[in-house]
Amino acid sequence: MNLKIALFGIAREIVGQSTLELAAPEGQSVQELLARLHQEYPALTRLSSLAVAVNNEYAADDAPLHERDEIALIPPVSGG
Amino acid sequence: MIHIDLIDQPIDVAAALQTVEDDGAGAINTFIGTVRNKSTGRPVVRLEYEAYDSMALHQLRKVAEQAQQQWPMLRKVTVIHRKGTLNIGDVAVVVAVSTPHRAESFAACQYIIDTLKQVVTIWKKEFYEDGDVWVAAHP
């Protein structure tokens, strides 16, 4: 399946683009996706935290991803 | 009643306060977050706020709904957050709540701004004379 991942803030700057398209095995989990991104972009591992959002909700590590999901990488938020 | 907004124009604070007026309320409590000229001692020139809009709006509404569950007497809640470029003194966020009595208005207002800072997908970049930093990005 193909995943489209939206990137924001420092994650966008580290990756160098605002969306990332990746081919992934069916049912790949959030944790697996993060491990892969950490390997490809080591600077992501130095962040205080890095969450994954699926369809506007924070996703659990073991949540499976689907091709139509709206996926986003969420570096530490700092609103307010 | 909940009113949520994320805008790239200056926040009209007076208009925001009007949205929580309620005949059943004896208290209106407001938090106004403004842009400070220093961050850990370093002079700040301006800020830029970036948002994941759809999630930020969704999470802001959830925070307001959680406040309503925790303080069922809440009459109205308004949260407006700014995005884009902000200068020193600009209003970055307004939280306003109305309740029958004052104690709950303080508690609910504080809960909303504290939780917003933890979960809402908005990122702040501080610009200094000689560089810039994404706030809270690194330990």
Automatic annotation (TrEMBL), chain A:
N-terminal signal peptide: none
Keywords, comma-separated and alphabetical: Molybdenum cofactor biosynthesis, Nucleotide-binding
Keyword Metal-binding (UniProt): no
Keyword Iron: no
Family that this chain belongs to: Belongs to the MoaD family.
GO biological process terms, semicolon-separated: Mo-molybdopterin cofactor biosynthetic process
Matching NCBIfam families: moaD (TIGR01682)
InterPro entries in the cross-refs: Beta-grasp_dom_sf, MOCS2A, Mopterin_synth/thiamin_S_b, ThiS/MoaD-like
Pathway: Cofactor biosynthesis; molybdopterin biosynthesis
An annotated GO cellular component: molybdopterin adenylyltransferase complex
Name used for this protein in its record: Molybdopterin synthase sulfur carrier subunit
Sample GO molecular function, one term: nucleotide binding
Automatic annotation (TrEMBL), chain B:
EC number: 2.8.1.12
Pfam families, alphabetized: MoaE
Keyword Acetylation included in the entry's annotation: no
Family: Belongs to the MoaE family.
Subunit note: Heterotetramer of 2 MoaD subunits and 2 MoaE subunits. Also stable as homodimer. The enzyme changes between these two forms during catalysis.
Database matches in PANTHER family: MOLYBDOPTERIN SYNTHASE RELATED
Identification of the protein by name: Molybdopterin synthase catalytic subunit
